[in-house]
């Protein structure tokens, strides 16, 4: 029996067990490579996606729990000439080195800006506490999120 799921505005039916981690469905069944496998224990943030409007570690979130909520991955933010303000700001601030954490950082930032369109540095750092960056780009990431917030408010 298939599980219906809406990802990045497109409806899909996946033939997997309901307890299959959402990350595996996104990467293996839907061929979306944005969310990354990092730790498999919801500790690093590399797999973060939006389920509804909530930043969610997809490595431990069962696909059967998605229900009617929409799932958004970094691929659903923007592409090519139509980048989201967060993606533009990450580029402008050079907020990625290796880029492994970028997808999760962007999705956590998107969830934050949906709730709080004008976060201060402390709020951004609290939101990113579950997102690990081994390269040390956190200061640039914080600047990028502030920049995107300003652009989105304008």
From TrEMBL:
GO molecular function: 2 iron, 2 sulfur cluster binding; metal ion binding; oxidoreductase activity
Keywords in alphabetical order: 2Fe-2S, Iron, Iron-sulfur, Metal-binding, Oxidoreductase
Domain of life, per lineage: Bacteria
Matching CDD domains: fer2
Domain 2Fe-2S ferredoxin-type: 5-52
Domain [2Fe-2S]-binding residue range list: 73-146
Record-linked PROSITE patterns: 2FE2S_FER_1
Amino-acid biosynthesis among keywords: no
Pfam families: Fer2 (PF00111), Fer2_2 (PF01799)
Gene3D superfamilies attached to this UniProt entry: 3.10.20.30, [2Fe-2S]-binding domain
Keyword Metal-binding included in the entry's annotation: yes
Protein name, entry field: (2Fe-2S)-binding protein
């Amino acid at each position: 029996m298939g599980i219906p799921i809406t990802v990045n505005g497109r409806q899909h039916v996946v033939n997997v067990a309901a307890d299959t981690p959402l990350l595996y469905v996104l990467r293996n069944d839907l061929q979306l490579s944005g969310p990354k496998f990092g730790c498999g224990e919801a500790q690093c943030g590399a797999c973060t996606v939006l389920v509804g409007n909530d930043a969610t570690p997809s490595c431990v979130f069962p696909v059967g729990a998605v229900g009617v909520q929409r799932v958004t991955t970094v691929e659903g933010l923007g592409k090519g000439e139509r980048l989201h303000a967060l993606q533009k700001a990450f580029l402008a601030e050079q907020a990625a080195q290796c880029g492994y954490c970028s997808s999760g950082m962007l999705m956590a930032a998107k969830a934050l800006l949906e709730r709080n369109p004008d976060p201060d540095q402390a709020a951004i750092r609290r939101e990113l506490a579950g997102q690990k960056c081994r390269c040390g780009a956190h200061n640039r990431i914080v600047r990028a999120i502030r920049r995107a917030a300003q652009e989105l408010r304008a």
